[in-house]
Amino acid sequence: MTRSPVPAGHARRSAERSPAPSGMSLHTLQGRRKYLTPDERTRFIAAASRQPPEILTLCLVLAWTGCRISEALALPHADLDRAGGLVSLHCLKKRRAGIVRDVPVPEGVMAILDLVHDLDPSERRLWPIGRSTAWQRVKAVMREAGVGASAASPKGLRHGFGVHALRSGVPLTLLQRWLGHASLSTTAIYADVLGAEEREIAARMW
């Protein structure tokens, strides 16, 4: 009898993802991912381009900064640096209140923000709407883009940004700063999501 190269119970244990030391995980208890794939990100941005201008810009900021939706809704005009291509995000978590992080965005994204909102140095909010309303609009875009149910959550775009950044070669410490994580161990969960790259690396052992 030929012995299987896969230990008994291995598949089941693989599906039970281990959370990071911070307690955060990129998968549900059933092993389903909670982040957007590269293809879903592309479809989400394409679907957002068919929305009203203010919803388009909200979706772009969420997708390209990885910020929390509450952080995006708190953004005033003055916190967008048109010349430098930076978005200054204020951490709203109690333990990290008062901390500001600058996240660079593509030139095209900043140009759209300027065109839609006519950016100025004022303290006017870019999106004077409530969190629930904003999320319902973003969720509708996710639905149109065909984003998987487990990833279509308030943190799906944030997690998708983290995974996309690491796959693009962004250093873990820089991603930590962009996401506003207090601990590098929290950011490190994104390094555990390699998809096809993980299989390619494993294949070198076979």
UniProtKB/TrEMBL annotation:
One of its GO terms (molecular function) is DNA binding. Keywords: DNA integration, DNA recombination, DNA-binding. SUPFAM superfamilies: DNA breaking-rejoining enzymes. One of its GO terms (biological process) is DNA recombination. It comes from the Bacteria. CDD domains: DNA_BRE_C. Transmembrane segments: none annotated. Residues 31-203 form the Tyr recombinase domain. Residues 1-30 are annotated as: Disordered. Belongs to the 'phage' integrase family. This is Phage integrase family protein. It comes from Methylobacterium gossipiicola. The lineage of its organism: Bacteria, Pseudomonadati, Pseudomonadota, Alphaproteobacteria, Hyphomicrobiales.
